[in-house]
Write a structure and sequence with these properties.
2 strands; 430 residues; mainly alpha; 3% strand; two-stranded antiparallel ribbon
Length: 430
């Protein structure tokens, strides 16, 4: 099957499934992404009867870039309300940083231990002497490649699903401050995770660019962020008088394509550039809410396609490399529980129920998008990053909805359903 037919089939599949889920959402439990990843694996290069071979996958990378950019833009738009509740957003940001550091350091140690070639890096990013036994000097060591990969894995681990919180609130009639707090913590984790993963790719790229232009990591990251911010300001100016939803919709898609192209040209994640663009539009445009509502109709098809493409791109790792996904999963679960509790206690006063970490175990689609973004730039590391992120993400989603329901119930956020009206008594014959 040629690329065009494959693309059309995938688009029809995504929109049809999205429509089905929307229509029967009240009858179905929350669906994880497992089935969509399986579809991707079955039609990808791993399958003997797959429709997408390596050559077709390369031709589809442009669509993947666009989808990643669209997801990043929507996350930026939706962060507007959460940013106004600064204490809750700050708590989510601090918890995200803690999870990123813990998981990132654990993965860094395993990556370098399982692949000792990283210790041959002549110019490591970090080489700090920490201890000597008289014969040897031991360092805290991080090669360039291992450091940026570990930071990407840590950022992916820190993501909590805001969509899962919204679905839980609708399905179980949950409401109140706990639902709002969980949503803000999840949004903060998404924003910070995209920024940190973008920093990882920017740092990786800055190493190459520095030789030619002398640009540091900070300067390179600021340059990329400024490109996204300028794109958002130009959009606000261009669309300032728009009243037609169609014009607004098309202009937004054009903006996403333009910003994603900037990210691709600069060799960084389209997620990162479009996140900054979305944050800028949310802060400067009077049409931000209407635009977010319009694009929300695309959210489910976009997430389905990203998960399918993640399944297509996945290649399993071998032997002891599976220790990295296992460590990723265990470190993430423990650290997410502890870090969320600490952050809420520290930064959000007046919260009676603070054991909220279990409500953020579900991750949604964003970690797969972060892994895909890294794989597009570093295909040689694709098997490791996709396995380390995708497998734990799917395992977590299998039980996260039940844990989320328990958290909401314990916090008293789930309203009891009204009792069913008693059936009328049958009339007695006279």
């Amino acid at each position: 099957m040629n690329t065009t037919l494959t693309l059309v089939a995938l688009l029809v599949f995504a929109f049809a499934i999205s429509r089905l889920l929307h229509r029967y959402a009240d009858r179905l439990a929350m669906v994880s992404g497992f089935e969509y990843v399986v579809v991707g694996v079955l039609i990808g290069p791993l399958s003997p009867f797959g429709l997408v071979d390596d050559e077709t996958w390369v031709s589809l990378e442009l669509l993947v870039t666009l989808l990643l950019g669209l997801l990043g833009f929507m996350v930026g738009l939706q962060a507007r309300d959460s940013l106004r509740r600064f204490e809750q957003f700050l708590a989510g940001s601090m918890a995200t940083i803690v999870v990123t550091l813990v998981v990132g350091l654990g993965c860094l140690a395993l990556i370098q231990w399982l692949d000792p070639s990283h210790f041959n890096d002549p110019e490591p990013r970090i080489a700090i002497p920490i201890w000597t036994d008289g014969a040897r000097l031991y360092h805290f060591w991080a090669s360039d490649a291992a450091l940026w990969l570990a930071l990407t894995l840590g950022a992916a681990a820190a993501v909590g699903s805001a969509t899962a919180v919204r679905w839980a609130a609708d399905r179980w009639r949950a409401e109140g401050s706990t639902v709002e707090l969980l949503g803000d913590l999840a949004v903060a984790s998404q924003v910070l995770a995209i920024l940190l993963s973008g920093l990882a790719l920017a740092g990786d790229r800055a190493v190459t660019v520095a030789d030619a232009h002398g640009i540091t990591l900070v300067e390179w990251a600021l340059l990329i962020g400024a490109a996204g911010a300028v794109s958002g300001v130009l959009f606000t100016i261009f669309i300032s008088g728009a009243e037609d939803d169609l014009r607004l919709y098309l202009a937004a898609l054009g903006l996403v394509i333009f910003a994603a192209g900037i990210g691709s040209a600069l060799g960084v994640s389209p997620l990162f550039v479009n996140l900054v663009t979305g944050l800028t539009v949310a802060a400067t445009s009077s049409h931000a809410r209407r635009l977010a509502a319009n694009l929300d109709q695309l959210h489910r098809p976009v997430t389905i396609l990203i998960l399918v493409f993640a399944g297509i791109a996945w290649q399993p790792v071998h032997a002891w490399m599976w220790a990295i996904p296992a460590a990723f999963l265990l470190l993430r679960l423990v650290t997410r529980m502890v870090a969320t509790h600490w952050a809420v206690v520290t930064f959000v006063p007046g919260v009676e129920f603070r054991r909220l970490g279990g409500g953020l175990l579900g991750q949604g689609t964003l970690p797969a998008a972060i892994a895909l973004s890294y794989t597009l730039q570093h295909p040689e590391l694709g098997p490791l990053v996709m396995s380390a992120v995708l497998v734990p993400m799917l395992i977590s989603d299998l039980f996260s909805s039940r844990v989320l329901r328990r958290v909401l119930a314990n916090a008293g956020a789930i309203r009891p359903r009204p009792p069913a009206a008693p059936a009328p008594a049958p009339e007695q014959p006279a």
